[in-house]
Prior knowledge:
Blueprint: H1 3-13, E1 23-24, E2 30-37, E3 50-58, E4 61-70, E5 75-86, E6 89-96, E7 99-105, E8 113-119
Parallel strand pairs: 2-8
Antiparallel strand pairs: 1-2, 3-4, 4-5, 5-6, 6-7
Bound molecules: zinc ion.
Amino acid sequence: MTRLETMKARFLAEPTIISQLPITLPNGCEVSEINGSCAECGNALTDEQLHGNVSRPMSNVVSFDAHGVCASCITIFPLHGRVRAIGDEMRMEWIKNGQWVGANLESETILSKLILWLKRQLRTLVN
Ligand SMILES: [Zn+2]
């Protein structure tokens, strides 16, 4: 299969991301929603347009490996990253130019809910 066929097959076979949430991290922070948007046109993906796998490689890490479909551009693209609980905070990490980069997410309270925004990562298409 070509890379495009593989992405399409995975999208069709895998459940929506929202169906696998929420997930509560050991520090009480809850990952309640993962949203995606298309960097080409800015279109926000609906829950039905974001499919993939959510996993817990470690108890304090939520990892997601998904594909989004942009209804405006009629394209499919990978979206992936992870959230790590560090103390009372969360750190969002994603791949940029082949390397993991990250940013701390502000949480007003330990029990705050987290909505993640993922942007289309064009670089991941160029392997
Ligand atoms: Zn688009």
